[in-house]
Structure formats: structure tokens, C-alpha cells
């Protein structure tokens, strides 16, 4: 439509529109806007209003471009009186006026010499926040400025001549007025404004909207431009991109603009590109940011520090480690240094990724660039190194910087970071040494550091040093005395030093300090740990009189102690007190008392409490039921335990693994294997995992009743239904199945353990190896023996002996000798029986020299061969000598006897003879 109007006429466009409508096209507001604007541009104001009527008949509303064109059209034909009506209709129809709308009105009224109207329009512009008018500023002068006239080029003057010789027009009160200006230039400019208003100049409109911060409208304009045959100029495109970057909004719009106007994007200057890199900070636009950055590098555009910072931080968020290293090197070569506020973020990432070298490199650069902020920079470095587990490196840096004289005045701050870091890393001796260094240098110890050190000193038994630290801190910071006393009380009470705690308590009172509930709680818990019920009662009485809160942990300690001491009525009284004070924790209070009663075996009182709970309408929770299941099991009340479990399941609650384990173990101990299996089937239906203890107890129960088939079927079901936990252990069952001759099942269980990442113990492997050897399956036994070696498990000496024996029986004496070497490498010594087995086998295989070597090794390990072994070897050597020369044989035999401890001579011969 726009092309037909601009190249031909609105008449041609109208004919084309009719053809389209016959084909089913439904024109929209934009279509009519083009026809209305071009009709006004051609001076066919009547046609323009016809199109307006058509548009309204379709229940559509003209857009602001149409209204601007109509206003300009009526001014052009001198019908200025209708301009106000059109303007008001636009506002009534929800079309917000633009700067162009007001310019048209100003130009039209100025052309018609209606300067009172001009003043009204200026007031409207102020109301719509388009301009600001100073208190004494002339509205007409402001109007002329908006229309592009210089401040002194146009003046409206009153004609004071009696005959109104200069009067050109009159104002609302009848004053004769005239214009003092170049009339030709004046008329020409106003006519141009009116004419240009009929076809919207989107580039200028877009700039105007961006200047006003109305990005939504600007973005709509750039989408409408193509329908009006216009393209964004580089200036307008740059202004729009800059506005988007400044507002940090609609990044998706920026990305789509880049894709749509790639030619313009490639012409943007370095300032805009830097703004873009800094603005595209969302994860989904990281790729676009890197493309823009790479383009800047290709074009040798100067890159701002803020752009490098934005890119580096973006790569952190993207977790693009490869990209990070690549762009980091580029940034460092360009002497990039981030601002201090971003140094926090970058340093935190570098430390968490263990890039300490890069962190220190950046730290040095910041010290050079921001020397006046060296303390703040050092503080940031030490803080992040200590928080992320590199306190040792921070310590080295502190000492080095101190040596260089960088921040001696601020050493205390650095030491505080080091102490906190060492405490976080559990390196308490190092923290203590820093503390002593601070004391030696007469530095003030911050109370927050003392709050860390005092409990630690108490935990290591250094109470005198903890007290000395308390005195040091109190002298310098008396206002923090209560926190220090609380920390010391906490440390003393945790170590059950009730005498020291009592002395400290009286010291607090003597200082005029009023202990709070926390201090009383620490004292109550400490005396409860040492079973001092009398002192606990006294402290509890003080707490009640002072109306202090009693925490649930303190109540737990008090209740446990009272039940242990048999003070059940007193425990019930404390329970009643807690119920009044803690209405929101009633079930928890009952749970603690029930647990303590089970610990002491008072089941009757537990049942009384359950009735009381029911009377008060309190609903038992999962914790209560689990306590009941375990407690009843512990005291052999299987019926009550099972009832509690059934109730728990009925309420669609889940019992803990411990509850199930305790109940099934108890059932199996009492021979109730069928009941245990029934419970297991319920667990299967619920999809509850069967832990090692549950599976082992059920299978062992079945095996004890010789129900091997049922035991194996149970294990198969566990695997098929995925009810085997990752931490499964079958060591005992493997041994049991081996003893029953079910080696395949034993091996399957072992494989299942290994698949779940659990290595069976050495005794389990020993059992399997013995079982395979018993079945004369040496090959399989050796496989498991080798697997033990690989997993660095040590076979028992009986297993070594059994393997050697079986190898010898199969004639594999060389393998048996290799085992001796392995044993020596594992700091084990072969037994005498092993050596004898190998020697006998070698002799039977006529390997006498080899047998002699093994015999010598046997003697080196401190064993004396028995007579039979010696005689066997000598007899075989005698036979061997018949085949060799007598001299050679004699020499060998003599040497063997000598090394075996037999003397050469007559006595020896007589003993042998």
C-alpha cells in the first residue's frame, strides 16, 4: 500500500485494496493509516476523512500517525478551528500524543496566528512531561524554540499605534499584534513542518521516543517502519541501542535488532559496542555478547575496562571455563583492571575455582591502579582467600605485604581474617598462633575473634588461657562483656566443668550483669551431663521465677536426668510446665518424655501418656510412632510395637529405617520369621528399601530353618524390585551360603555388593576361596585370590596355605613359589608347612636343585626342616648322583648337608647310617 501511494497515488492504492478485500483480506489500522496520511499529503482531505469513517465503521480506532496527518491537513486548508477537536478525539481514543503531534499543533496555530492556542498547547506539553517551563519563561518563546526558530528570530509585538498600522492579528482581549521576523522564512518553515507531519518520519520519531525514555513505543516504531517504506538510519539505530543499554531492559529485543539489521550493527561505533557488551548480562545472551566482543577485537575497537569486567563475570555465570581462560588472557594483555566493587565478585569466583595464581595477579594489578585504596583491596583479598579455604596462602600474603610495609597500620584487620579462616578450616593451632602474635604486638583483640577462641581454648582444656583472653577483651571492650561471658560459659559447660561454670556464674552476678536464658540453659545442660539433679532443680526454679524461656534441648536434658533418677512424677510436672509455655510444641514435649521413659523401661507411664495425648486431642506424629515402635521392641512388647507400625502405615506415614530394622530383628530373635516376612511384603508393596540389617536378619532366619529356596527367592525379589540400598553389605550371608554349598549365590551377592560400590571384607573373600578349593575349583579360587590382591585386601595365612597346597597338588610349583615372593612383598612369611609342601612336590618332580633353593629360603626365614623332608631330598639326590659324576654329586651332597646344619665327618655318617 505504501509503495503504491508513494509511487503512484492513493487512488491506485484504493483500487488495489478493493481487489484485496474481494479476495478476503481484512485491512487493519495500519492499512488505513497509510491511506489517510497520503490523502492528506496529496491535499485530498475529504478522502482522508472518508477513510477515517471506514475505519470507524469497522470498530477500529485511528492511530496517532493518522491523527497527526489530519491535524496537519486541516491546518493546511485553513480549517484550524477543527484541529483542537481532532486532538481531543485522539486523547479520548487512548492515542497518547507524541512530540510530533504537539509540533504540528504549534506550527498550525502559529501559521494561523492563534497564539493564545499556542500557549494552551505549550501548557499541555508541560502536563504530558514533554517539556519543562521555567516560572518566568515566555510560552511563545518556548514554542518558537520547539519549532526550530532561534530565540531572537521571531517576536510577537503589540501595536501601540493608534491606527493599528502594523497590526496583523488580535489577541483574545483585542490587542493588536504583529510579528517581527523574516516572514518568508517563517511561513516556509511552518509549512514544511505541517507538510512533513502527514507522512511520519520514523527515524526522528524514534529518536524523540528514546530521548523521552519510551522504549516500548520506540521498539514498536522500528517494527512499523518497513510498512511505511522506511529503514532505520544509523543515528536512530545507535540512539535506540544506547537507550536499551541504559535502561537494561528488553535484551531479547536488542538481540533481534542485531539479527534483523546486521549491516547497521556492523557500523556501530565503539562506544555503543562497549555499552552492548556491558548490558547483555543475562545468561541467554552470553553467546551474542561474545560475538559482539569478537567483532570488536577484529575491528580493533578500543575495549573499555567495564566491558572486560562484564564479559569475565558473564563467563563465570555461564560456567564456560574454557572461554573464561581465553578472554582472561586477552583482558590481561590489554592491562584490564576491574573496579573495586567488581573485584569482590571476580575474586570470589577465582578462589572457588582454585585459580589462586590469577587471583593474586589481579590483586597486584589493583594495588598498582588503586594505590590509594590499598587497604580495601587487601581486605577483599584476605576475606575471600580465608572464606574459600586458602587461609594459608592469605597468611603468606599478609607476612609478605607486612615485610614490604604495605599496611602495617591495618595488620589487626588482616589477622582477624586469618583467625576466622583457620577456624573455618579447623586449623586451630594456626589460629592460636596468630592470636598470640596479636597479643605480642599489643593489638586490640576484636570481641568476635574472642568468641571463636574462647570456646576452642576450653575444648582443649586451656581454661586459664580462655579466662586470660576474657580479661584482655574486657579491659579494651567492656561494652561487650556479656557476649564474652556467654562464650566462656558455653565453652566451660560443654566440657562439663561444672565447678568452673559455677564460679563464672557468680562472677557474672558480681559484675552486675543479669544472666539471660542462654546462660541458664548452658548451666542446666552441664549439670545434667554430670547427673547433678539437685543443682538442675535449683537452676530450673530460678528460670521459672524469672519467667525465662526453657528451650527444647534443655527440657530434653532435664527430662532424661529425672527419668534416670526415677523422678517420674517430677518429670510429669516439668512436662506440664512446658506444655503451658510452649503451646506450639506439645507433641515434641510428649515425644521427649516418651523417649526418656522407654530408656528407663517405664512402659506403664508411656501408655498413660498416650491416653493423655488422646484426651487432649493431640495427633501423634511420625516421630512419636517411631519412638513407640523402637521402645516397645526394646522391652520385648512385640504386639504393641506391631500395632504402632500398623497405625503408622494406615495414616500413610513412613516409619524410619531404624524402626523397621529394630522390629524385624526383634521378630527374628524370637523365631517369628513368618511375621518378619509379612512385614517385608508390606515394605515391598510400599517400595521401601530393605537395608542390610533387614535382609541379613530375614535370610539368616530362613537359613536357620533350612529354607534355602525361600531365602534365595527373597534375595531375588529384592533385586528385581529395586529394594537393595547402595550401602548393602552381604558379608555374613556370603559365608552362610558358602557353608551350605551355594557358591553361585554367594558369588552373586558379592558381585551385587561390588556393583553398589561396597567392597567385601577379607574374611569374606577367604571364605569363598576356601569353598572353591574344597570343591577342587582352583581356577575360580585363584580368580578371587587375585581380586583380593587388586583390591589391596590381605588373605589370611590359612588362605595362603590352602592356595599353596592346591597348587602343589596340581603340580604348579612355580606358581606356588611366586606366591612366596608376593608374601614377602606384603611383609608376610610363608609357614613351614608351605615350604615343606613345595619341597616335597619339587622332589617328586625330580627338580632337586630347585628344591634345594626353596630349602635354603626356608632356613633363611628361621625354619628347621624335619628329618623326613631332609631324607627325601638326600635320597633323591643320591639317585640323581648315579646319573652324574661321583665327584660332582659328592660336592653337591656335601654342600647341601652343610647348609642344612649337618657336619661333614664320621659322626654325621654314623647318624645317617
Structural class based on helices, strands and sheet pairing: mainly alpha
Q: β content, as a range?
A: under 5%
Question: Main sheet?
Answer: 3 strands, antiparallel
Poorly predicted residue ranges: 882-897, 899-913
Q: List the strand order in the largest sheet.
A: 1-3-2
Straight-line N-to-C gap:
134 Å
Backbone CA Rg: 49 Å
Can you give the mean pLDDT? Answer: 83
Number of strands: 3
Number of separate helices = 52
In one word, what is the shape? Answer: elongated
Percent in helix? over 70%
Structure in words:
The chain has 913 residues and is mostly helical. The protein contains 52 helices and 3 strands. It has a 3-stranded antiparallel β-sheet with strand order 1-3-2, with no helix packed on it. The longest helix has 17 residues, at 867-883. Residues 882-897 and 899-913 have low confidence and may be disordered.
